[in-house]
Write a structure and sequence with these properties.
By secondary structure, this protein is α/β, with parallel strands linked by helices. The protein is 39% helix and 18% strand. The chain has 16 helices and 13 strands. The chain has helices at residues 27-34, 46-54, 58-61, 82-93, 129-132, 138-144, 148-152, 156-174, 181-192, 201-208, 212-224, 253-259, 268-290, 335-343, 369-374, 376-380, and strands spanning 16-20, 39-42, 70-74, 96-101, 119-123, 228-233, 247-250, 296-301, 307-314, 317-323, 348-353, 359-361, 364-368. The strands form two sheets. It has an eight-stranded mixed β-sheet, sandwiched between helices. The chain has a five-stranded parallel β-sheet with strand order 2-3-4-1-5. Helix 6 packs across helix 12 (253-259), helix 8 (156-174) packs across helix 12 and helix 12 packs antiparallel against helix 13. The radius of gyration is 22 Å and the shape is globular.
């Protein structure tokens, strides 16, 4: 199956570039396709890694004088000290760098040079419905997610299990992010039960046999590795008493399902509901980044229990999305959106559901999820599709 990535970087640009994205989202493949003739250093290569770790200044020695092309450093977070050398080479030799990273943990540490604004930042995400086009399969995406290798893999379950084992656990171990890998492994599974839910750090700590501080640090690690995302509540000009605690999502529906333990007492709704929300979230984050729409993403929940899954707020307006698996929408399903709109009259409200018909209920647009996910960019730019 072929697909066209939405990420675009002008090869003639004079700016250096960071590309951040979770491991497996296709950064290296994309670089080798569009920047195939440039100087390339892969820090996952043990020899290159060891050489630069011993002496970061060797980077400049490996680049010919008067070189005019791009210099690519893949997985730059492996040797954070390289950024000082990159900075020097930008200043003194006017070189252009394309740097990729699948972790921001070490790059955020005190003293690490983030190039002081001398590099533009881009993000790469799991594949979107726009990138897959007619090949987008909602049922498969709900089950296996949209990592590029999953799309064409003959055994996606095995691939995802290997991804979780070799990356989520070993990467944490190799980077020295925690000394207790067994505890972190238990945490990964426990966190999967919080997918799409308001976090209760104390309950998770009790379940895995730890403390609240450690659990909060583990969530920080997931975010720094770009494989977890905390969604914070929308509180701007709030007229109601809303919750202040974030919700949590793994970055990809397939990764979430692979981590989430399954038992005979689990109902489909307990797993499929959060997975459907995850598909929306990963699509929204990707579209927002690739088209520079400028939205911040939130959720909304009152202490009385009214909740909206996703709120997008930015220069293009205010949007509220409720995600439902059901094939029919009842009037009660729109109550939270109606309450939200009474507080924020400018909001455009949507329910995305498992049915097949689009219609308007009061001020809420009801759309099939399968249709809306493909039209999300149009919805967010107010170019509503015809019914």
């Amino acid at each position: 199956m072929k697909f066209n990535r939405l990420l675009y970087i002008d090869p003639l640009s004079t700016d250096s570039v960071f590309i951040f994205g979770p491991r497996g989202t296709g950064k290296t493949h994309w670089i080798k396709k569009f920047f195939s003739d440039e100087i390339y250093f892969d820090l996952l290569d043990a020899e290159i890694y060891t050489d630069f770790l011993a002496n970061p200044s060797r980077l400049g020695d490996r680049i010919p004088q008067n070189y005019q092309g791009w210099v690519i450093v893949d997985e730059v977070q492996k040797v954070p000290a390289l950024l000082d050398e990159v900075h020097r080479l930008i200043e003194h030799r006017q070189l252009r760098f394309l740097l990729t990273g699948s972790s921001a943990r070490k790059l955020k540490q005190a003293g690490v040079n983030l190039l002081a604004g001398r590099a533009l930042t881009y993000h790469m995400h799991p594949l979107t419905s726009l990138e897959l086009g007619a090949e987008y399969d909602l049922k498969r995406a709900l089950q296996y997610g949209n990592l590029p290798k999953v799309i064409n893999h003959t055994n996606p379950d095995k691939f995802l299990a290997s991804y979780v084992s070799t990356y989520l656990r070993q990467e944490v171990l190799q980077e020295g992010l925690t000394r207790n890998i067994a505890l972190f492994t238990r945490f990964l599974e426990s966190a999967s039960f919080s997918q799409g839910a308001v976090l209760n750090y104390t309950d998770i700590a009790r379940e895995v046999g730890s403390n609240r501080h450690t659990i909060n640090n583990f969530f920080d690690i997931l975010e720094d590795l770009l494989i977890g995302y905390r969604l914070y509540p929308f509180t701007k000009h709030s007229k109601r008493n809303v919750v202040a605690t974030p919700k949590f999502y793994y970055f990809d529906a397939g990764v979430y399902r692979s981590i989430r333990p399954k038992g005979p007492l689990d109902s489909p709704a307990e797993i499929d509901g959060p997975a459907l929300e995850t598909l929306f979230l990963q699509e929204a984050r990707a579209i927002n980044d690739y088209f520079d729409l400028g939205f911040e993403l939130f959720y909304w929940r009152t202490h009385a229990g009214q909740e909206i899954d996703f709120v997008l707020y930015g220069k293009l307006g205010l949007f509220a999305f409720e995600i439902k698996r059901t094939q029919k929408i009842r009037s009660a399903d729109t109550k939270s959106l109606e309450m939200f709109q009474s507080d924020y009259p400018m909001a455009k409200c949507f329910i995305l559901y498992g049915g097949t018909r689009s219609y308007t209920h009061i001020e809420t647009t009801v759309m099939p999820f399968a249709e809306a996910i493909k039209a999300l960019k149009n919805l967010l730019t107010s170019d509503l599709p015809e019914n």
